[in-house]
Structures are given as structure tokens and as C-alpha cells.
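The aim of this short unit is practical: by the end, you should be able to scan a pair of folded records and say something sensible about each. We start with the first protein, listed as its amino acid sequence and then its C-alpha cells.
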Amino acid sequence: MSVSLSVDRFEGDDDAIAVVVTDEGQSFNIPRSLLPEATEAGEVLQLTFKRDAQATAKLKKEAHSIQEELAERDPGGDVTL
């Protein structure tokens, strides 16, 4: 999936935040460091979203491992404050 974004303006310290607008008029902020070098206000960018099945599987495996480790150390029962 690809989305067209127009760069409306830059804000913040050292113009570090780009305010971008979708074709539907929705605006949101993106760190300028994520944009192509020398991007200027008024330019149109393409943002592409792509699912990464391999990275997702790795993240799920790591999360499951942490949950198992925590469960081993959890004595169960109510927490006393």
C-alpha cells in the first residue's frame, strides 16, 4: 500500500518535524530525519507500507520468551502494596 503525502511545513527545534498531509486532508507529523535528504515544503512524497512476516515472527518469538521467563519468576497470587 502506498500513500501520497505533501509536505506542508516544518516545525519544532531546527525544523526537525515535518507536517505532512494526505490526499484526504489528514495531517500528521513525521521526524524530518526519516525523509529523503533536502526534502522541502511543497514536495510530494510516497509512503509505502509493507508487512514484514519474518520480523513479525521474530518479535512474537521474543515476546513469548519474555512472557515465559516472567511466568517462571511469578509466585502467583495477589500483589501486596
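Turning to the second protein, read its sequence before its C-alpha cells, just as you did above.
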Amino acid sequence: MRLPPVGAQRARDLLGRFAGLPVLVVGDVMADRFIIGRVTRISPEAPVPIVRFESEHTRLGGAANVAHNLAVLGAHPRLVGVIGQDDAGQRLRRELVSAGMGEEGIVEDSGRPTVEKVRIVTERNQQVARVDYEIDRDIEGPVARRVIDRIAALGAGSKAVLVSDYLKGTITKRVMEAIVSMNGSVPIVVDPKIPHLDCYAGATVVTPNHHEAEAATHRRIRTDEEARDAARDFRARAQAGAALITRGEQGMWLSSDALEGAIPAAAREVADVTGAGDTVVATLALALAAGGTLAESAVLANHAAGIVVGKFGPATVTQSELLADFESAH
């Protein structure tokens, strides 16, 4: 079974409601730093390419990329996350301000570095290596209390909550309980990780990719029927209202008590899947906040994913790009 498509007029109506919608984002914020250079020879010291430096730049990653996606779509994201007291954290703060977002929800932890992924990339966007700076233990003590306080302060009045869990320590059972108990009937969208499945009880929808769904349910997913069964099992394990499995070139599968079905892939040309999941959950949560049904919101998220995978690195999608994609499909 396929879910019905969303017409261009309905997409235009929903997109028109995005402006200024307050959405709380809680999760693992990251700095994605790209060191770009030219490769012309192999090192005589080891069989590795020598990258001659040309430039570098930092992009918002993880939960910060989710918030950036919301901002570009016209929403008013309120971001809560943890950084270290280091240069990477200051760069991340500057990027947040540059993107027009507040940093009042950012909590500093002197006992851990800011999560930073440093990618060494050629001028042709080929990744040579990646270096990760992180400590992934759960937040606790005063840091955890400050995070929960920020959630309470910034969550008031939010039309949706988005949880971006990268297993870097920000999302804990206690943090999830604070989110669920605070927001009542407001939709809660969770980008999950398998070790935390027991934490997500009460979420409106969880959005595993097909690898995560296979691992959590011990099922192979090759057909729509297998996706259906895995989605049912996944949402039962997570105690969530719905599950949206992202399946790459196979599109998505949505499962809830009210409906379930496939959403065909909308990708045209894939350049880089980095951050595509961030775009999916941002669009999904914002469409729900705008009054879209779960099915309509999932279809909008699918179109957004099809656009963003055509861009390099953590990227965003604009309202005009989304609307043009719907108009070209109808």
C-alpha cells in the first residue's frame, strides 16, 4: 500500500504556516569542520594521499543542523544542547548566531569537549579521512539539571518538540521524561538510536533508518511487507505512536494505528547523504506543528530528503525548493 501524495496546493498551504512556528530541539549539537585541499600525489611515508590545504569551514551538525533546517524553513527553533569550554564550542556558537538562531539553550560542560567531526575533503568533495572529537558519556549532575531547566524554559509555547539523539550523552531517560511530561499533546518527533529505545516512551513518532530498524527488530527489510512488520515492531519497542522508517532509494515506510504505507523515494541525484536524517525530522516536525497530518508531514519530509541528498555535507532545504519540487511532481 502506498500513501496518497500531497498536492502542490496542500503543500503550499502547509508551507505557508511555517513562518515563526516555535519548535523546541533537544539533542547532541555538533560542529562539522571541513578541511578542503587538493590531492596530487601519494605520500612516500605511507600509501595515503597528501592533501594540500586550500580552505576550511565549519557547519552546524547534529541537533544544531536540525535547528538550522527549521530556521531555513521559516520556523523559530529553540535549541537545547551541550558543548565544551573550547574553541570548537565558540565556533559553534558563532555559527548559531550567524544562522540567526539564539544560543540561550546551550549548556557548557567543562568535563567534555564539544562534539566535532573534522573531515578532510578533496576539492571534488571526496572524503579522505575524518577525525572525531567527543566524549559520549551521559550528562549528569549540574549539567543535566541545567539542560532540564533550559527545556522547561524554552519549551513553553512550542508547537512541536524534536529530539535529535546521536548517542553523545545529551539524551538520557531523565531528559526524555522531562520532555514528555512537559509537553502533553504537542507532537514529539524522535530521531532515535537503538541503545535508547527504552527512553522514547510517549513519543509521537520515531524515525529510524532501515539499518537501525533491522538491528532493533532482528528483521531483514527488503520488501514493503518486511518494512511494515519491522515498523510495527519498532514502534512497539519504543512505545511510540508511530514509526517512520527511512529506506534510502526505497523511500520510506510509515506505520501508526490509524494508517500505514509506503512513500516512494523522491531523490533525483545523490551527492551526499550526510545530515539527510536531520532534514527529514525537521520537516516532519514542522509540518506536524503547522497542522499537517502524520501522512502529509511524512510526504513533505520525503520530498525534503530528496532535495538535500543532492547537496554536499550537512545542508538545508528552503520553502521555495520544497514547493518547486511538489509543483514539478504534479
